[in-house]
Design a protein that fits this description.
The complex is a heterodimer of chains A (about 575) and B (about 160).
Chain A: E1 2-4, H1 5-15, E2 20-23, H2 30-37, E3 43-46, H3 50-64, E4 68-72, H4 76-90, E5 95-101, H5 117-121, E6 127-130, H6 137-149, E7 155-161, E8 170-172, H7 192-203, E9 208-212, H8 214-218, H9 222-232, E10 236-238, E11 253-256, H10 263-271, E12 274-278, H11 284-287, E13 298-303, E14 317-320, H12 323-336, H13 343-357, H14 373-383, E15 389-392, H15 396-404, E16 413-414, H16 425-435, E17 441-446, H17 457-462, E18 468-473, H18 478-487, H19 503-509, E19 513-517, H20 520-532, E20 538-543
Parallel strand pairs in A: 2-3, 2-4, 4-5, 5-7, 6-7, 9-10, 9-12, 10-11, 12-13, 13-14, 15-16, 15-17, 17-18, 18-20, 19-20
Antiparallel strand pairs in A: 1-8
Helix pairs in contact in A: 1-2, 1-6, 3-4, 3-16, 7-12, 9-12, 10-13, 14-15, 14-20
Chain B: E1 2-10, H1 15-25, E2 32-37, E3 43-51, H2 54-66, E4 70-75, E5 81-92, H3 97-107, E6 111-115, E7 119-126, H4 128-137, E8 143-148, E9 152-155
Antiparallel strand pairs in B: 1-3, 1-4, 2-3, 5-7, 5-8, 5-9, 6-7
Classes of the chains: A alpha/beta (about 575), B alpha+beta (about 160).
Chain lengths: ~575, ~160
């Protein structure tokens, strides 16, 4: 079969099993768009801004585990995609981004809409390719998918010059079934000796804790993690990225850890004698001040990426491998081991954890006359029966969603944890809804974040992706304001917008339903009404308490044992902001 | 501590910038870097001299290994190895100085590879310290130009960095 470069791109994606491609046309990709036009297997989702394309593909990838695919033009199309590429990179999300490039002979001449996409994306991709020969195109695409989805996943950019896709140059096409690369051989199973050592240490622990992260979600190891945790009977905490990998409603789950984690999870980390980190990377939002991190613990670390091991925290037993096979290997050893977890020590440990839990660190004022954002998330949980896909933007609302919506399944909680990209949530929700049209998809956001990619409301209308936008509107960039309150004597420098749009009208202008909610008693009925409208995107503009802060909190430079807890100060109406 | 890392990398355009970019993005030092294709033209060999604590060097080697184009690498400082650097130095030489420079070059096992009525170019290879010593022995005002390749290295014995 002889195909043009443009046809090769389209056919390769089809042969790779790609369902959706998120993109925006432009000069350098016109040949590609012409090839897309002449087929109907591969569905193209036209976004309104290339950043939206990357986030939508990213949301699709996080929800399904399949790689997200993006198509953008050269120059500004490419640079607009960079934020979304970096977002995926920081959270190890498999994506393939095809960017148009000016024709080979004019590369380097500052041609119209030329930008060095390979150079710009190099630090925020797993790998990138510039295609210089049309006969290499199919293999390059195969390599890109292979690299993006294996080992520690990540985004891969393929920069395709316009002349490579020219319709008049046709070459034989064959999509490779598989590729191998001498320079890329990710490790799968763990080292047996290390695993044995780890099991010995685990079974001799007095105050153990399991600390698991996004790697468990990415590695499809939720089932193994659950069995592992239940077999041992040890407490488990998840990172922000790992929520849902272990059922949050289970009694062994002691909440998220880190800056806005639970008191009990952070205290247990601090006091523990053996920590097993599984697919987690000791991020600074998790560890707090490194010198104070887990002073009494021996640490086991399972990670597919050797560079994640001992990067910030020195570990005692490193195990390089995919989480799933390694957990299987460990479980087998544990079951056959003559030694069993120390029952007596565990009893004491759980008793201690129970005391920390009694602090009730997630309490908030339930009598408030103002709408508490935490209450909204709790109601969202009830209305969706805990089974929704929840995407979020970045800030206070993100933390509240993580704290008050217990996720029992992996891939249900979709947020930008590493890069912290405002504007991520709504386009990501569109990607999720395309993947799971029958599921409830909620985007928890704030009035600042949502405006960063608000134009994608138009995409949601065009493709009939009925998502529910839960806008916790506190008329502030809440997290910025919170830090300014705590660390800058309440000097609220530019964290307030005094011209916030009327979101109800805005939603309606885009063809959706908008509902404004001002009172706590309106929250539940509005949520029920919104989720009952199965075929409509609904924008719930919820006026929340402006003064509310995220608690508990590890402030900058502090350790896990030094959390700032909520002080009961009466109802929030008593507090006035300057 | 000083480390000398030898890298086999795919001989593709942009491979060098991936390595250089990694160092600048993560704040590591590069003291010197040499690169050339190997006997297999699809592979380049890079020799990189860097400094850092054991933790930093461990991260550097892990991050380098993570680059898709890197096929293999070794830290030569971990075992017995030989290092050589090439230097060419252009020296202003007139009158009596011409004999003096010639005998100095002999002592350091250097070769004079270009002669004009007023200059010599001395070529010299050896460990970097030897080249430093030679430069230090020359009157600074008579040095017109110094060009150094940066060290390359190879491990001793049967061991080697190859596919």
């Amino acid at each position: 079969m002889e195909l043009s470069g443009a046809q090769i791109v389209v056919q390769s994606l089809i042969d790779e099993g790609v369902e959706y491609i998120f993109g925006y046309p432009g000069g350098a990709v016109l040949h590609l768009y012409d090839a897309l036009f002449q087929q109907d297997e591969l569905k193209h989702i036209l976004v309104r801004h290339e950043q939206g394309a990357t986030h939508a593909a990213d949301g699709y990838a996080r929800a399904t585990g399949k790689p997200g695919v993006v198509l953008v033009t050269s120059g500004p199309g490419a640079t607009n995609a960079v934020t979304g590429i970096a977002t995926a990179y920081m959270d190890s999300i498999p994506m393939v981004i095809i960017s148009g490039q000016v024709s080979l002979p004019v590369i380097g001449s500052d041609a119209f809409q030329e930008v060095d996409m390979i150079g710009i994306t190099r630090p925020c991709v797993k790998h990138n390719f510039l295609v210089k020969d049309v006969t290499q195109l199919a293999e390059t695409i195969k390599k890109a998918f292979y690299i993006a989805t294996t080992g520690r996943p990540g985004p891969v950019v393929i920069d395709v010059p316009k002349d490579i896709t020219a319709p008049n140059i046709k070459v034989p096409y064959k999509y490779p079934k598989k590729v191998s690369m001498r320079s890329y051989n990710p490790v799968v199973t763990g080292h047996k000796g290390q695993i044995k050592k780890a099991v010995e240490l685990l079974l001799s622990a007095q105050k153990p804790i399991i600390y698991s992260g996004g790697g468990v979600v990415l590695g499809e190891a939720s089932k193994e993690l659950t069995e592992f945790t239940r077999t041992l009977g040890y407490p488990i905490t998840n990172t922000l990225m790992g929520l849902g990998a272990y059922p949050a409603t289970d009694k062994q789950f002691i909440g998220m850890l880190g800056m806005h984690g639970t008191y009990e999870a952070n205290m247990a980390m601090h006091e523990s004698d053996v920590i097993i980190a599984i697919g987690a990377r000791f991020d600074d939002r998790v560890t707090g001040k490194l010198d104070l991190f887990c002073p009494y613990a021996k640490i086991i670390h399972i990670d597919v990426d050797p560079a994640s091991i001992s990067k910030t925290v020195r570990v005692d037993i490193p195990i390089v491998g995919e989480v799933k096979p390694v957990l299987e290997q460990m479980l087998e050893l544990i079951k056959d081991h003559h030694k069993k977890p120390n029952k007596k020590a565990l009893e004491l440990w759980w008793h201690q954890i129970g005391q920390w839990q009694a602090v009730d660190c997630l309490q908030f004022d339930r009598e408030s006359a103002l709408i508490k954002p935490q209450y909204v998330i709790e109601q969202l949980y009830e209305v969706t029966k805990g089974d929704a896909y929840v995407t979020s933007d970045v800030g206070q609302h993100q933390m509240w969603a993580a704290q008050y919506y217990p996720f029992d399944k992996p891939r249900r909680w979709i947020n930008s944890g590493g890069l912290g990209t405002m504007g991520f949530g709504m386009p990501a929700a569109i990607g999720v809804k395309l993947a799971f049209p029958d599921a409830d998809v909620a985007c928890v956001t704030g009035e600042a974040s949502i405006q960063m990619c608000i134009q994608e409301l138009s995409t949601a209308f065009q493709y009939k992706t009925p998502i529910k936008i839960i806008n916790l509107n506190n008329r502030y960039m809440g997290m910025v304001r919170q830090w300014q309150e705590f660390s800058y004597e309440s000097r609220y420098s530019h964290s307030y917008m005094d011209t916030i749009p009327e979101f109800v009208k805005l939603a309606e202008a885009y063809g959706h339903v908008g509902i404004r909610i001002d009172k706590p008693e309106e929250v539940r009925p509005a949520l029920e009404a919104a989720f009952a409208m199965k075929d409509r995107t609904v924008f719930l503009d919820i006026m929340t308490d402006r003064t509310e802060n995220v608690y508990p909190m590890i402030e900058a430079g502090k350790g896990h044992h030094d959390m700032k807890l909520r002080v009961a100060t009466g109802t929030s109406t008593d507090r006035e902001l300057a | 501590m000083r480390h000398i890392i030898s890298i086999l990398i795919e001989n593709e355009s942009g491979a060098l910038s991936r390595v250089a970019g990694l160092f600048s993005a993560r704040g590591y030092n590069i003291e010197s870097l040499t690169v050339a294709p190997t006997e297999d033209p699809s592979l380049s060999r890079m020799t990189l001299v860097t400094r850092g604590s054991e933790e930093i060097i461990e991260q550097i080697t892990k991050q380098l290994n993570k680059l898709i184009d890197v096929v293999k690498l070794i830290d030569l400082a971990e075992s017995f190895h030989i290092e050589r650097e090439l230097m060419m130095i252009k020296i202003r030489t007139t009158g009596e100085m011409r004999d003096e420079i010639r005998s100095m070059a002999d002592i350091f096992r250097g070769n004079i590879i270009d002669v004009t009525p007023t200059t010599y170019i001395v070529e010299m290879t050896g460990p970097s310290e030897k080249l430093d010593a030679f430069v230090a022995a020359i009157e600074p005002s008579s040095i017109i130009e110094v060009v150094r390749s940066g060290p390359t290295g190879i491990s001793r014995g049967e061991k080697g960095l190859h596919l």
